[in-house]
Design the sequence.
């Protein structure tokens, strides 16, 4: 009887852990849109970024956050902060919301920044996919530092924050491997799923 009870508790705990992982977006890449359009392609690009970021950050340990590949390089935690800032710029562009600089996220935990980064990617993708195919012409990347404000077309989002976030997400993967905590070998970025 006691063994059966322990097995039931173990199964329930495993199911609850699996469900809690799925509360954050991008455990798997969402289904692709039915049609090709500029806005759908951009949304899908952000979905790919979200999936990669999810798995690059899943299972990061406290000691991993302090890892630095070199004395003058960014730590893993500083890289995560940078990606969080990029995620804000990515979600703000389809809404033409101003990005205020400098920004301070020191009161946020790693888990809070991770969750918000993933939600920012999800929201940005949804905004892009829901927009009219010509809507990107009206998206603006706006930065404000003190009294100075600069504005750029959405083209800069592609070669700027989105590409930069992909670049730095790859750095997270490499830093984790070097720190002795590699990402799951089951991650398949081509299919956007975990291998069985």
Sequence:
């Amino acid at each position: 009887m006691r063994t059966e009870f322990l097995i039931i508790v173990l199964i329930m705990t495993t199911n609850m852990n699996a469900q809690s992982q799925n509360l954050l977006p991008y455990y798997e890449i969402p289904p692709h849109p039915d049609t090709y359009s500029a806005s759908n392609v951009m949304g899908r690009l952000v979905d790919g970024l979200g999936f990669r970021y999810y798995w690059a950050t899943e299972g990061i340990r406290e000691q991993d956050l302090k890892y630095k590949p070199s004395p003058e390089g960014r730590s893993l935690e500083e890289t995560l902060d940078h990606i969080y800032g990029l995620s804000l710029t990515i979600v703000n562009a389809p809404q033409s919301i101003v990005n205020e600089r400098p920004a301070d996220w020191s009161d946020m935990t790693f888990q809070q920044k991770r969750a918000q980064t993933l939600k920012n990617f999800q929201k940005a993708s949804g905004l892009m996919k829901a927009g009219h195919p010509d809507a990107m012409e009206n998206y603006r990347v706006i930065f404000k530092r003190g009294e100075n404000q600069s504005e750029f077309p959405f083209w800069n989002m592609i070669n700027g924050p989105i590409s930069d976030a992909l670049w730095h997400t790859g750095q997270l993967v490499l830093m984790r491997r070097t720190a002795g905590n590699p990402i799951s070998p089951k991650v398949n970025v081509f299919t956007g799923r975990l291998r069985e």
Observations:
- The radius of gyration is 19 Å.
- The first strand starts at residue 98 and ends at 101.
- The chain has a mean pLDDT of 88.
- The helical segments are 2-21, 38-57, 62-65, 76-92, 110-130, 155-179.
